[in-house]
UniProtKB/TrEMBL annotation:
PROSITE patterns documented for this protein: GH16_1, GH16_2
Domain of life of the native organism: Bacteria
GH16 domain mapped to chain residues: 17-251
Protein name as it appears in the record: Beta-glucanase
GO biological process, one term: carbohydrate metabolic process
GO molecular function terms listed in the Swiss-Prot or TrEMBL record: hydrolase activity, hydrolyzing O-glycosyl compounds
Family of this protein: Belongs to the glycosyl hydrolase 16 family.
Record organism: Rhizobium wenxiniae
Record field: transmembrane: none
UniProt keyword list: Glycosidase, Hydrolase, Signal
Enzyme active site: E137 (nucleophile), E141 (proton donor)
InterPro entries linked: Beta-glucanase-like, Beta-glucanase/XTH, Beta_glucanase, ConA-like_dom_sf, GH16_AS
Signal peptide range in chain numbering: 1-28
UniProt cross-references to SUPFAM superfamilies, sorted A to Z: Concanavalin A-like lectins/glucanases
Amino acid sequence: MTTIAHKIAAAISTLGLSFLSATMPAAAQGTLNNKSFVENFDSFDRSFWYVADGWANGSHQNCTWSKKQIDTAGGTLTLNFSEGQSKDRKFLCGEVQTKSRYLYGTYEVRMKAATGSGLNSAFFTYIGPTDKKPWDEIDFEVLGKNTNQVQVNQYINGKGGNEKLIPVAGGADQGFNDYAFVWEKDRLRYFVNGKLVHEVTDPSKIPTNDQKIMLSLWGTDTLKDWMGRFSYQGQASMVIDRVSFTAQGDACQFPESVACNLD
């Protein structure tokens, strides 16, 4: 883990915040479901998805979550980052999360990351104090300072330090790429475009608590070393073509799924 990442995690822990702030509405907490699904975004099901609106994760975030930054059209979900005054911030950004929580299985997204230094295009799972649970998290994050790579990471009871940067051929913001992780009790595997790129077998570095599935695009003025110096160049967009979860032991749900070829 880099020095700056250590400082970020320490600051968040000191303030009693995670990137999913303690101010998260109770309606977003959810319950364990763990049923397999494939979401192609032919429509947007608000009984399945919670849309973050009117709040932010902490002072490190320079935008306010807004339902106006969410758009579904043509079989894709778009999360936008754009100018717009809300409370003490002058930018608006988009986030959605499942209302249910999930545990062991294969988590997959096909997405195109946003372009722009200081932005973070994220596909991850999360649970924390707002759910009266420890802070556990599994991440794919494309950091705007270098969209030729994606960062993977895990938090276990609020402890991170498991970052690894994975190259994304052609650039994560130049086209759609497939990101997946397979979460088992004693193993966690990360895949990029169907290729195994990282494996974790240390049980102390594998989360154990069921989590919500989340997609978000946000920016920062302060975390420059991690995400890059922020410079607004007009609206930026993260586009999601598909999200899926295949419960452990279930058959794979589409031909491109890494769940079709697991040992």
